[in-house]
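name: query_chain
kind: protein
chains: 1
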Amino acid sequence: MKYQKPKGTADIIPPFSNEWQFVEQTARETFKLYNYSEVRTPIFENFEVFSRSAGDTSDIVTKEMYDFHDKGDRHIALRPEGTAGVVRSFVENKLYGPEHAKPVKQYYMGPMFRYERPQSGRLREFHQIGVEAFGSDSPRIDVETIAMAIDFLHRLKVDGTKLVINSLGDLDTRKNYRQALIDYLEPHFDELSEDSKERLHKNPLRVLDSKDANDQKLVEDAPSILDFLTPTAKEHFDVVKETLDQLGIDFVIDSNMVRGLDYYNHTIFEIMVNNKALGHGDVTICAGGRYNGLVEELGGPECSGMGFGLGVERLLLILNQELKDELQKNDLDFYVVAIGNKVKNAAFKLVQDLRSFNYRADQDYLDRKPKGQFKSADKYHAKYVLTLGESELEQGTVNFKNMETGVEKVIKNDNLEQEIKSLTEE
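structure:
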């Protein structure tokens, strides 16, 4: 039997795993500057965590969830996105309590699962990096979150980003807009897609998010939610726009953007790029928004939230090629060649010494002859080779060779670290 990975999954093998490590490390370093700390939640949760948060009309719940009943007949789901699990953790661990500094800022990274047609940059097992900030109603938290996402992408040298924003307003805004949207769409009911017909009275805003081409035409002339913002919601959005302007962050307003999850309100945003690796036109690589009712929905007190998520696979497709080439080099610093059985223990210690000096080092473990060991050094792209034979062992020395320049030098073991650092810094 030939064993293969499941459809819609991928093996992340060297040297490509270096790119993943770079993206993850850059995320950690960037988010730390904004006072975010990492949270790790289970890969699977009770089904209700996602159905309550995403909304029972969302594609995630109705079409894409990997869910099953376990041996205890518990309804379990593999996480399709990161926010719901982080909110559940926030509530369960009572991080809303007065002993915790506010806002509580957390980030996460890890695998997510959705059953959908696999395509470039979108697999059934995919990876997300995301952030959540709990406990502040300030529109400036919205802007800080957006600015942090843009900062992260700039540090990855992602060019040509476009920020698109909208406001979904507060509860009164959505209540009034909901009815206006139903009134507009009902005369076109027979023209709507089957999904949109089902959603029209449950959650008409989701019709705006439809991928059906005819639905998209129908909503082009739909009323704008921005015309229904309450004074409070309008003031919140005005501060967001003014603060973005103050930071010199360009943005475009799209009043039909609603995002694919039901828990958003007030500010929502998407960061897009136009890159051939993702197809034609602008493609979203990062998205998020404010969700002031989600903590309550999952059993917590009234507490606001703001966050974003981005797909790592999609991000890797558009990384700067020069950067990717550099990350994939995977070069070894030192390879130690041992000549003769008597020097094997000494060679082993030499490799360990090099590692203690913070060099990436390796040696032969297949009892190959010197010629075979030098071939291995070439395959590992070793920058330097140290050769140790019986004569070097007796004299307390080792032979150093720079593989790029061909320069060789005999160095003494009693001053090994200093001499090696001197030679590698030349």
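note: Residues 331 and 390 are 28 Å apart (CA to CA).
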